[in-house]
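Researcher: Next entry in the queue.
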Amino acid sequence: MTVRLGMVGCGFISHAHGRAAVRSGGAIAFAACCSRTAEQAGSWAREYGCEAAYTDIAQLLAHPRLDGVVIATRPAGHAAHITACLDAGQRFVLCEKALVTSSAAALEVLRRARAAGATIIEAWMYRHHPAFVALREEVAGLGTVDHLHAEFDMLDPAREDPEAGGWRRDPAAGGGVPFDFACYPVDAANLLAGALPVRVIASAFTNPHHGTIDRLFGLIEYANGCVATLASSRHASLGQLLRVCCERGRVELPMSWNAPADAVLTVTTSPAFLQLAQRLRRFPSAPAGELADLPVYGLQLGHFADVIRGRAAPAVTLAQSVLNIIVLESLVAAGRTGSALQIELPTGLRGPASG
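Model: Structure for this entry, 355 residues:
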């Protein structure tokens, strides 16, 4: 059975999903798409063999026999698009990060999805990469996680140009590092810490030309004593890192969110006093010409199709995504006020840390 999907938003990242479907060999197909302009929707439909192209999400959701929907719009539009899917009776949605841009919106999505029995999955493609899967396996064998560090920097060469456009420089669209770059370190920290977050401390810097937060540095304390530090900046050259320090060793993965074709995981242990032993695990793959060609997008879309078919449980739960938004919002608030903030979680999120 071919899983038939609809695409909401036909911008840059949508092509990663479109190409993944093409590579599926007929197992997955995009039956319809929609975009704000007929020209862009029509171009996307021709490239990926859609039956129809629309300029209205309501028209897309009325397209016959859609098994699921992929949302690839700007972060600030995600809440409305998820709501439209739920109102139309759609029960399977894969939504690009960040899920939404406020705690209130995240909790409302959670409430609505639970009431409808719908599955909403945030598109954390890095979780499907074999190197990250291996990192989690290594961490599980090294004892308690004591602390971890995660970062995602990418220089914005136009950060001082008040005329520079693009959604990443528009706070109304969800631009800035919190819901575009820092969300990766927060997701990994919440996933690996082994407990729920209880307090945050942060420094946040607002770009005077665009009004976005383009530098965010934070510390997250967890209920079990684990501490995570994170850094995300548009003023520093490209850098991605995840380092997890456990009682019996540490694991490090560079370029952790967009792992290249030659991904290497480093596991370091201490066999004797002041001695270190390193083990490298390599994950070679065919080089990708563009970000949209990375094989991990195929793994993610294949997983989404398996969830729709009932063959797999979601690798990313909606509760995890809601927790991420609450932590991100707390980090931004702490960064703006200069004060440490306690994280108050709703009752429905006080269960297991990764539930």
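Model: The radius of gyration is 20 Å.
Researcher: Noted, moving on.
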